[in-house]
Amino acid sequence: AMALCLKQVFNKDKTFRPRKKFEPGTQRFELYKKAQASLKSGLDLRAVVQLPPGESINDWIAVHVVDFFNRINLIYGTMSEYCTERSCPIMSGGLRYEYRWQDDSKYKKPTKLSAPQYMCMLMDWIEMLINNEDIFPTRIGVPFPKQFQQVCTKILTRLFRVFVHVYIHHFDSIISMGAEAHVNTCYKHFYYFIREFSLIDHRELEPLKEMTERICH
């Protein structure tokens, strides 16, 4: 039912961005298939995120960043009708956490935005980065830039904020749509991955600390 629900949202909302795909025949496509296969095999998610022997860590991170972008984008898309300028005038995670937007082009200083505006800016910004060949090279033999992992940390940190907002402000919608198990699995996969490679500062994880302790044993 969840897959169907995601599919309907995906087809219905034409402003929804197309998924970034890996080109068949490339090493990254093979890695992606490997990651998806172990995910479907029912293996412990902690084992699934570990770097396969002989693989490049940057390729592994690149595959996961793109995949998490696609999946979190879909999760937010299913919630977006409940997340409006009116219901969520501030991009926040409860009363203690407020996230401001900064992107070094239009918003040079951290700026207060509503949650839907923030999400829109965020997804556009990530899409621009993962489609940039200088940052996420797709051609064989083209090296990753020196700052690659820093860029991924920034992307993943901001994607984590989507989970924070959705869990804290829209959990009732997740439950009413029957999507709780799906969202929890995606969150656990994401959490184990960023912990495995120390990709997000632990302070950023604070808003969901109690829930994480409960579902990520």
UniProtKB/TrEMBL annotation:
Q: Which residues bind Zn(2+)?
A: 83, 88, 165, 170
Q: Which UniProt keywords apply?
A: Kinase, Metal-binding, Transferase, Zinc
Q: State the Gene Ontology terms under molecular function.
A: kinase activity
* Pfam families recorded: Mob1_phocein
Q: Which domain of life is it from?
A: Eukaryota
The keyword Cytoplasm appears for this protein: no
Protein name stated in the entry: MOB3C kinase
